[in-house]
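User: I'll paste a sequence; please echo it back and then give the predicted structure.

Assistant: Echoing your sequence first, then the prediction.
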Amino acid sequence: MKAYDGMYIDGAWRPAAGQDVIEVVNPADGQVIATVPAGTVEDVDAAVRAARAALPAWAATAPAERAARLAALRDVLAARRDEIAQTVTAELGAPLKLSQNVHAAVPIAVAGSYAELAATYPFEERTGNSTVLHEPVGVVGAITPWNYPLHQIVAKAAPALAAGCTIVVKPAEDTPLVARLFAEAVHEAGVPAGVFNLVTGLGPVAGQALAEHPGVDLVSFTGSTAVGRRIGAVAAAAVKKVALELGGKSANVILPGADLARAVNVGVANVMSNSGQTCSAWTRMLVHRDQYDEAVELAAAAAAKYGDRIGPLVNAKQQERVRGYIEKGVAEGARLVAGGPDAPREQGCFVSPTVFADVTPDMTIAQEEIFGPVLSVLRYEDEEDALRIANGTVYGLAGAVWAADEAQAAAFARRMETGQVDINGGRFNPLAPFGGYKQSGVGRELGVHGLTEYLQTKSLQF
């Protein structure tokens, strides 16, 4: 076990204000692998003050120079890709292949995309007799989750730095090690002191202090809708801008005539990826009544193949939460066709890949975000019924549509109340905006839309 010291503040690792530490546990075996400082209000204040002091110079830095620092950061992350993957596997429990191909690779691509955008974005433009300036919003307070620990930091820090903002990041307490690694990469890339700052700590202490701090101009949060509501209320009291990427209960709609086997197999893989700990996972599979039994059989068979291929959940609390939802599904009358509430292994925070059939739209497992490897298969009568079910939750983060005719799938997708829809297995695009409708959040991440979240506009009339 390694005991890490200090917070990354104003370009250096500085001793924490308090003595408390957070234990980092490998969820695959329950072993404590490290400790990090539990940040205090004083630590957060020091970090925000450093960010405010660094803001004028960084905001005035030429976009080309900001782009160069981001390109250097991308290169450092690429050079440390194996170390990143191993770190995520140790603290999150993700299989190493997933850590290499997703947890490490995607943040590298996102950092690279913002290096390019910083160099090409029109921070100044003419409109009639006015010059419109796109200026940094100021100091950003970023509170990030554990499920994609590095990606969520980069998805906030990279556009913030590209925009000319300075930032303080409070990472999830379950996965702080890769966040420390990122701070090292920022330092190695030559980002000036105070532009990026890192405070590890607990949400109710460090996270709340960051959201409430009067020196923070924008709060960017990814996590549960319940916590997002609280952050929104805190920010509203100070009229701060917020960017909230929250929960999801995404629908995977398989229309008649689609390649049923492919749609089901891809859908199951989507839910099981990252052990189901993905806010945009397609956890509701909607199938026409005439193909329902076949789809259920295919889904059960596909899920069974993931029994020894997925990692644990992040901690014992999350494991018990997911098992509780599975028990709730059984109690409300859903039919288990794969998996179940029993832990598949004696050691570690594992949950069996689970598929429910005979799920109705009003059941708890069809309405609430479970955040585990649990799929609900629902039947529909016709397209209008499918649309009603798909749009029938408080969430609207992602989704999928499958059809023999791509135009038919696109027409259906346009009517879905959700921020992103994959059509016939469309590939992930790091330049496409990501974010939700309804209670799935406010604002967008990734690409140019993610950059504009960190900008404010000023017009000069001549």
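The chain has a mean pLDDT of 97. The first strand starts at residue 2 and ends at 3.
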